[in-house]
Write a structure and sequence with these properties.
about 375 residues; alpha/beta; Rossmann fold; 3-stranded mixed β-sheet; 15 strands; globular
Length: about 375
């Protein structure tokens, strides 16, 4: 089996590559990434791309390898959260929606059997009245969420025999070789370790479903060769587990319980946070019984604690560091490596960021 993972050098990609290398030892695994975050390694003894057979470098808006011969495409490439989506709205639409659809059409034309799209439960937005099912109304309120549902809807219109799976992931959390701290649980653990205090800016009542990044990889493994008979040729499915719908204040207190001495302050007078939703994961449980999430909240927290301690993490000002994806992009822009469209800037034919290499560059992965 031959698999291409686009956007593999972010937060989720390293876990996906590692998981697939174990679950499919004979598979040919390729990556394609623009290398915005290639340097953001966190406690990794080796670069995670060692699990791949080949790494391509390029902008998915412009560059794709020949897709003939691939069995599956895993589309992770995206502007990956609300703050980045709000600052780069046009780019978010272009990459998350337009380019996703373009890649899918190219894959279909090349005879690829399965296309896996990393979507998001954030498409439910403001959602009162209990856990949301896939058939419930959507209410995306951010550029990021709108781009995800926009991509889902366009994917469903492609005339093809290719099996398309849009995985509506719960909020990601957990340790990765390229850790992000701009995620709610990850942020709380970092605050507790570096400051001894977790400040919840909302009143703590908003709901968030969580999924560990390791379990996201399990879901992708399932979708890579999902049959059309199992859910339909084009499927959008919530991915997570019913018992991991949490209020934000519960997450803060769970972290504090793992790190003695941590104080939790909650802004009880804060206006209501519109981003609140519970999600029903019954369909995923029915369709993928052998790929259900295994990492519970306590284990996600412990893995984060252990990972950050291995990094000797003590930065109380981490929200201004390269552990925040928006800060990394802004740093590239301020240093004139990226332009406002998040395209690498070339000078005299040489790319400004040597880590990304030339647009056509590829490397063989090795240990």
């Amino acid at each position: 089996m031959k698999i291409l993972i686009t956007g593999n050098m972010g937060y989720v990609g390293p876990e996906v590559a590692k998981y697939l290398r174990v679950s499919r030892p004979d598979a040919i695994l390729h990556g394609l990434d623009n290398a915005y975050f290639a340097h953001c390694l966190t406690g990794a003894a080796v670069v995670p791309e060692r699990y791949l057979d080949e790494q391509f470098y390029g902008d998915v808006r412009e560059t794709l390898p020949d897709l003939r011969g691939y069995d599956a495409i895993v589309q992770l490439a995206a502007v990956s959260n609300d703050p980045m989506g709000n600052q780069f709205q046009a780019v978010t639409l272009d990459i998350n929606q337009n380019t996703t659809v373009s890649i899918a059409k190219a894959a279909a034309a090349a005879g690829v059997k399965n296309f896996v799209f990393a979507s998001s439960c954030s498409v439910y937005g403001i959602a009162e009245g209990g856990p949301r099912k896939e058939t419930d109304p959507l209410n995306p309120i951010t550029a990021y969420a709108k781009s995800k549902i926009g991509a889902e809807r366009e994917l469903a219109t492609i005339e093809t025999q290719m099996v398309v799976t849009s995985l509506r992931f719960a909020t990601a959390c957990g340790m990765s070789a390229r850790l992000r701290l701009d995620l709610v649980l990850n942020d709380f653990v970092a605050c507790a370790l570096s400051r001894g205090q977790i400040s919840v800016l909302s009143d703590g009542t908003p709901w968030r479903p969580l999924i560990d990044v390791a379990d996201m990889a399990r879901a992708i493994d399932w979708a890579i060769d999902r049959d059309a008979e199992n859910g339909g040729r084009c499927l959008a499915v919530n991915v997570g587990s019913d018992d991991r719908n949490y209020q934000v204040k519960t997450l803060a207190n769970a972290v504090a319980a793992k790190i003695p001495g941590t104080e939790v302050s909650i802004n009880t007078s804060a206006p209501a946070d519109s981003r609140s939703y519970q999600v029903d994961f019954g369909l995923y449980r029915l369709l993928a019984p052998d790929h259900q999430p295994l990492v519970d909240l306590d284990q996600s927290i412990q893995n984060l604690i252990s990972g950050l301690q291995r990094m000797n993490f003590r930065d109380a000002d981490f929200r201004s560091s390269d552990l925040m994806r928006l800060k990394v992009l802004q740093g590239h822009i301020d240093s004139h490596r990226l332009n406002a469209a998040l395209e690498w800037i070339y000078r005299d034919g040489i790319q400004a960021n040597a880590a990304a290499g030339d647009r056509s560059r590829r490397t063989k992965a090795s240990a």
